[in-house]
Amino acid sequence: MTHILRAPLNGNTLQELNAGDEVLVQGTVYAARDAAHQKMIAALEANGELPFDIDGQIIYYVGPCPASPGRIIGSAGPTTSSRMDAYTPALLQRGLKAMIGKGDRSLQVIEAMKKHGAVYLATVGGAGVYLAQKIKAVETVAYPELGPEALLKMEFEDFPCIVAIDVRGKSVYLTPDI
Amino acid sequence: MRIVKVEQIKETVKQAVRAANTQLPEDILDGLQKACAKETVPRARRLLEILLENAHLAQIENMPLCQDTGLVTIQIQLGQEVSLTGGDLYEAIDQGVREGYLEGYFRASMVKDPLERVNTGDNTPAVVHLEMTPGDQVVITVFPKGAGSENMGRTAMLKPADGWPGVRRFIIETVKIANANPCPPIIVGVGLGGNMEKACLLAKKALLRPINRSHADSRIADLEAQLLQDINQLGIGPQGLGGDTTALAVNMEVFPTHIASLPVAVSLNCHSTRRAVVTI
Ligand code: SF4
Fold it and tell me: Which of B217, B214, B152, B163 is nearest to B193 (CA)?
């Protein structure tokens, strides 16, 4: 079934999502990847503050291409989420409620998601042009010096995702038997 | 001696990176279409349709197929009878990448130092492999490759006693560990033999071979076909969300090796396999 998710989120809506469900994300989403995460965690450690109020928010793991003339953004598909695993539990503790990316998460992240009632959504890796069309506005929030890794705020319209890991920690990914 | 100006190499690299990042090669498009027609899991089929739609949109909108426009590897096959004039070849290549990426509005994804990690701002430098060939032509292959798939590559120095079963196990294990990260359906490039760096280079070379062309040696071609079948039975599927289509192809290249060695390298490439070949 397809759910509509609108940020900021609250715990109740997320309880209804099951791993494997389809979701269309609407509204405001923050975009951050490796370098912005590193800076956010450094800021938290230094003064306990983030560049935006993260409570109930969604972070999309993306470093978009620059916008060519006449566009608001270039290609903007997800990056590999596991690279953000080390930073994620601290953000979940601060109220982050959903993450959008591609690929599996660590056990520590899944445990923190269960504890704080958060979900992890997967979107289509490599569909950068298709997904850019679902982004209707973009604004830089912090760290412009990071170029493609700056912290951005985006407005989504019908941004397609699949619930990859739900609030109960149930996952759609196979556990490799190696 | 045939004279080729490095300015021409720069211009070629620039056009080729522009084309490679916006147009999916025919063989990959065809592979995706065929996989989509055969896929039995509805969600997997839908995901493959989105990838095909994305490729179509990239071409008509002249936008990069994927936001990770990659680290650019450039292979130059330089004819022995060619004399390059007018400047430094490597500078010309980087200038071509720089202009192509800035003018194409492609993402700059290179950092200057692996530890300090400050972006170079123009996606340079490229990684260049130079090869001498007979004749008077220059064949330039540009291969922008994203890190999602690149980070999942692995190399092993196996023992001769491990034989094909050991090699096969290592390749399958690599695909399983990679799981959803390299954006399946993937292309699996295998380099077998040589020494450590040769195996890695062979794995990359294997990825440059169109996926509708199996190895010229039927013994290797059979191993490729077998592996492809085994990998597609893993059920990882498009985006790691389940399905019959985990890989579109397995391409393997081999080279003689030492009596004590059995090197194997596996380089994975995503469905967004971007490459362009130009002959000057
Ligand atoms: S693995 Fe390939 S398709 Fe996926 S995000 Fe990276 S470059 Fe794009």
Answer: B163
